[in-house]
Amino acid sequence: MSDIPGFIAIETGDEEGLPVAIAWSLPDGRIKHTLIHPDDSWFDDASSATREYSSEELESLAVSPLDVIRELENDHFSATLYTNDSGEDELALTRLFDTYGLDPFVELAPAEVLYDNVTSSQWQRLRSDTFSELGLEPMRPEHEVAAMLSLHQRLSSDDA
Fold this sequence. Notes:
The protein has 6 helices and 5 strands, in the order E-E-E-H-H-H-E-H-E-H-H. The chain has about 160 residues and is of the alpha/beta class. It has a 5-stranded mixed β-sheet, sandwiched between helices. The radius of gyration is 16 Å and the shape is globular. The mean pLDDT is about 85.
């Protein structure tokens, strides 16, 4: 079996694209995910945006934005990663990189472009069905990536 495309999802804490949690897939289908510790430059926004997570969770489980960037670079430098095309991922990724004055080294594309025989609206419906079938929560990035991986497996086997 060939490598699986890279999928990415970022939980945002506000309309400004504050990245709170991130998940992405690896070529073998595994998923990496973590909370993102708010950078000091985000402090005004971070207090309200991270309210779903306690300060203990952030201190013990979250990693710095720079560590997230480094890990993403190790896994997907100069790659195209596929999203649910909500637009939030692009905004959050840009904000993550802007914190350090960096240009993103990955390109984002809507996941439905991977499938010639599925329209955008069909893909979104199938994605929603996948969340229900697997009992996943759409707001959690690791669940979003798991749903896209499952849907990719289904749509790729349909093409075979």
